[in-house]
Amino acid sequence: MKQATPFSIQKxxxxxxxxxxxxxxxxxxxxxxxxxxxxxxxxxxxxMGLWSIAEHIAAIRERPVxxxxxxxxxxxxxxxxxxxxxxxxxxEAEIFEHPTRANTVAELLDPSVIKTPPxxxxxxxxxxxxxxxxxxxxxxxxxxxxxxxxYQTLHLPGHSPGSVGLWEANSGLLxxxxxxxxxxxxxxxxxxxxxxxxxxxxxxxxxxxxxVHAGHYQSFDRARxxxxxxxxxxxxxxxxxxxxxIT
Length: 247
Ligand SMILES: [Zn+2]
Known about the structure:
This protein is an alpha/beta fold. It has a single domain, classed as Ribonuclease Z/Hydroxyacylglutathione hydrolase-like (Metallo-beta-lactamase, Chain A, 4-Layer Sandwich). It has 5 helices and 12 strands. The chain has helices at 53-60, 74-77, 93-97, 194-205, 222-233; strands spanning 7-11, 16-21, 32-35, 41-44, 65-68, 86-89, 136-138, 143-145, 150-155, 164-168, 173-177, 211-214. The strands form 2 sheets. Strands 1-2-3-4-5-6-7 form a 7-stranded mixed β-sheet, covered by helices on one side. The protein has a 5-stranded mixed β-sheet with strand order 8-9-10-11-12, with no helix packed on it. Helix 4 runs antiparallel to helix 5 (222-233). The chain is globular, with a radius of gyration of 17 Å. The model is unreliable at 242-247 (pLDDT under 50). Bound molecules: zinc ion (ZN). Zinc ion binds next to loops. Zinc ion (ZN) is lined by residues 71, 73, 159, 178, 186.
């Protein structure tokens, strides 16, 4: 029987594709964004890396690839080690270089979310992604030039100290990682600070976006962004909120 491919790909507008790890439950898998540029491509987040995302990208396009992680959590940065060019925020450089199950929050991983393990001996209760030292540390306002399009980095701390988004002014595309997605926002992790997340979300609220491509779930427009941000700021959509089921 033919084995299912570990990735699905969905082509969107502006040379952007959404790649997903099909062997993971939808509740856990992050969105992997592939942005095509004239001279080089950008991958925004790399998934868990249990399957070869770098080979998958190389099979699609013959371009140099910059792999950019919005933050160091295991579901976003697990595949970073597979790439030669590894970008992330300096505030989490230590975690990328010395990942542990604690500092990448892999301890929260429920083994049942892995529908098809990468090999028969795989043990999710012990797993941590391999070290992936950054080759380029970014900070607020850095520019990433793909040849015919330029992305600006936005430092968006709160979910994690080095959470960073990408803004393309020409297209109005905004990539937010886990700082903002259309769901309950994780603000309860060991290095999360809800008050700082509020500041990052208020900043995002003012940006004239056309489309938000987030770290999880569906993409959305500016009107939806305002709803999601306002609901968080009013105490909804928070893991720390009483009644959210989290203690
Ligand atoms: Zn995260």
